[in-house]
Amino acid sequence: MKYRHAAAQPLENPEVVINLWAYSGEDGTILRLAGKTYVMQGTDAEKLALLRRLAATDFLSASWHKVPANFTIQHTDFGEMKGAAHASMINEQHYHERLFGPLIEKLAQSIPEQARSVNGEYQKFRLELPEAPLCISTIVMEYEDGTLAPMVSA
After folding, report:
1. C-alpha R_g of the chain
2. pTM for the whole structure
């Protein structure tokens, strides 16, 4: 089947990639997270560049999730806060994996099943999240006046 104004773009090695967001108050306290999976192809540099562009706006269409309950911080005003993290943890690999791990697992499970016709028979298939997926983590600053400002890495 041919379409005058469309060209076929066969998929070559589609890969599931992720954008992650941590919502931080001005004091650096993180109480909620968000994430979104995408399927992209191209070089890693191309995928990361597109993830960065999407990180600036797509947090507005991603569902929130709580910070894992095993995270606790000492807050200057509220004392010990369970289910809270500090923005400085995002840059530390050990904390990053623990902070976003449960959310990444949920995102991996939510990748929808697809179908394709092979020799006249439909086959179901599902893309899998790679063991070490390409990922961009962005802090979304929440200001007192209601402004949300994503801090997208360069």
Report:
1. 19
2. 0.90
